[in-house]
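Structure (tokenized):
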């Protein structure tokens, strides 16, 4: 199924959801990701430029779960 990236409008079959704003984002809109217990924690470029969200992402560690 082709979906539309909620950040840039690119159409892709592989959109990932940003953990911090909930937007479905394409590969180029996802700034970074980390391994979670289940799946991956993702942050989009928009949330990356938001300092509190970026700090929360950087502080996240898989081992803490
Ligand atoms: Zn986001
Ligand atoms: Zn995009």
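Design, position by position:
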């Amino acid at each position: 199924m082709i979906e539309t990236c909620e950040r840039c409008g690119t159409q892709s079959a592989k959109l990932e959801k940003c953990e911090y704003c909930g937007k479905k984002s394409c590969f180029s809109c996802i700034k970074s990701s980390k391994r979670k217990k289940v799946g991956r924690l993702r942050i989009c470029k928009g949330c990356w430029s938001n300092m509190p969200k970026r700090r929360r992402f950087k502080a996240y560690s898989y081992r803490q779960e």
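Reviewer-requested clarification: The longest strand covers residues 30-35. The beta strands are 3-4, 11-12, 16-17, 24-25, 30-35, 40-44.
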